[in-house]
Every structure is written in structure tokens, then in C-alpha cells.
């Protein structure tokens, strides 16, 4: 009888230990990636396009949000997502901004957002090469972003990470009105500087 109780107690202890080790292992895997929210105050999404092929028009989007998940041990598990509200376009000229919101340009009522969602991530020297789906004006194309940066800094108790990238896009690849391509060049250069705050 005593031996039976001792065996039962020993089995219960072993089971508890196994469950504790298993739970601990799962917790470690879940916390491997660090989560960050896009910091609108210290970030920017700007662009420039040729005017009459003699000068550049500069602009930016003021309403942007995003999330980063960075797995430094297994970078392929990292993810990046960005959402831009098209009606927040700002070229420092109210009349031009209103025109850019119309159907012959961004058509902001029908296409209120520009989005990027990563599909694969690999580390490179000084950052990450990120492939993903870029959706603008109702058309999705796969693009590759070279994100430079990624060092984490602890400032006033908040951990931050930052990246920067530049890309070249053609409006004709995203179904923009061909009649609106001419005075304003087809190609636009987009500059993204984003800072994330760790959750």
C-alpha cells in the first residue's frame, strides 16, 4: 500500500515537471519575436515625381500606421506591415492635394489605402531584404524593399527600432489614368523612414 502511494506520488511529480518544462519551452518560442508599433511622430512616408520632366514635385502622406515583428534569432519569421491613408496626401498646396484625391490620380474614395504586407524576409548586411505585396489604386504587385537599420535603442524606458528604404514605382503599373501621366511623370520615388516602439 505504502509502495503504491509512493509510486503514484512519484508519477505525479514527474508529470508536473514534464508539463512545466513544456510550457516553459512554448513561452520561449512565443516571445522570440519582438513586436513594434509604427511611431507616426518620428516616421515619414514621402515621395517625389517629375513635373514636365524639368523639376520635382515633393509630397508626403500624413496618416500612416504599421506593425513590425522582428525575430532576431530566426529573421525569416519577421513580418512587416504598413498602411497609408491616401486622402492624407500633402504636397503643401491644398488645390493640388484635392486634385490628387480625384479619380484621375489616387481616387481616394474608391481606394482609401495603400498597403504593404511582407511575404518573406531575409537578413542582409545592415538590415533586411523584404519581399511583399504592395497594393495601390486597387492593384497588387510583388515588390522587394531593402530595409536598412534595425538596431534597437532604449530611450526613456521605451525600446525603439528604425528602418529606412527607398523605392521606385511606376503609376502605369497600378492602373492610374494614362491621360494623367505626362505633365506629371509616370515614375515616382518613395522614401520611407519608419521608427517602431516596442509593445
UniProtKB/TrEMBL annotation:
Lipid/polyisoprenoid-binding YceI-like domain span: 35-197
Keyword match Lipid biosynthesis: no
Pfam name, any one: YceI
This protein's record includes keyword Ligase: no
Signal sequence segment: 1-32
Keywords: Signal
Superkingdom assignment: Bacteria
Protein name as catalogued: Protein YceI
Primary gene name: yceI
Amino acid at each position: 500500500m505504502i509502495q503504491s502511494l509512493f509510486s503514484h506520488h512519484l508519477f505525479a511529480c514527474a508529470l508536473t515537471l514534464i508539463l512545466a518544462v513544456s510550457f516553459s519551452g512554448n513561452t520561449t518560442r512565443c516571445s522570440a519575436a519582438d513586436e513594434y508599433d509604427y511611431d507616426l511622430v518620428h516616421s515619414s512616408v514621402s515621395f517625389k515625381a517629375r513635373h514636365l520632366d524639368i523639376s520635382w514635385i515633393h509630397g508626403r502622406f500624413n496618416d500612416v500606421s504599421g506593425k513590425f515583428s522582428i525575430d532576431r534569432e530566426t529573421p525569416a519569421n519577421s513580418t512587416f506591415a504598413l498602411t497609408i491613408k491616401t486622402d492624407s496626401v500633402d504636397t503643401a498646396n491644398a488645390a493640388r492635394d484635392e486634385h490628387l484625391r480625384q479619380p484621375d490620380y489616387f481616387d481616394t474614395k474608391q481606394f482609401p489605402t495603400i498597403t504593404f504586407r511582407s511575404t518573406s524576409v531575409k537578413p542582409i548586411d545592415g538590415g533586411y531584404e523584404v519581399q511583399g505585396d504592395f497594393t495601390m489604386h486597387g492593384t497588387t504587385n510583388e515588390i522587394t524593399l531593402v530595409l536598412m537599420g534595425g538596431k534597437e535603442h532604449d530611450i526613456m524606458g521605451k525600446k525603439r527600432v528604425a528602418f529606412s528604404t527607398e523605392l521606385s514605382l511606376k503609376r502605369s503599373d497600378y492602373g492610374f489614368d494614362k491621360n494623367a501621366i505626362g505633365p506629371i511623370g509616370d515614375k515616382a520615388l518613395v522614401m520611407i523612414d519608419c521608427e517602431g516602439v516596442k509593445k
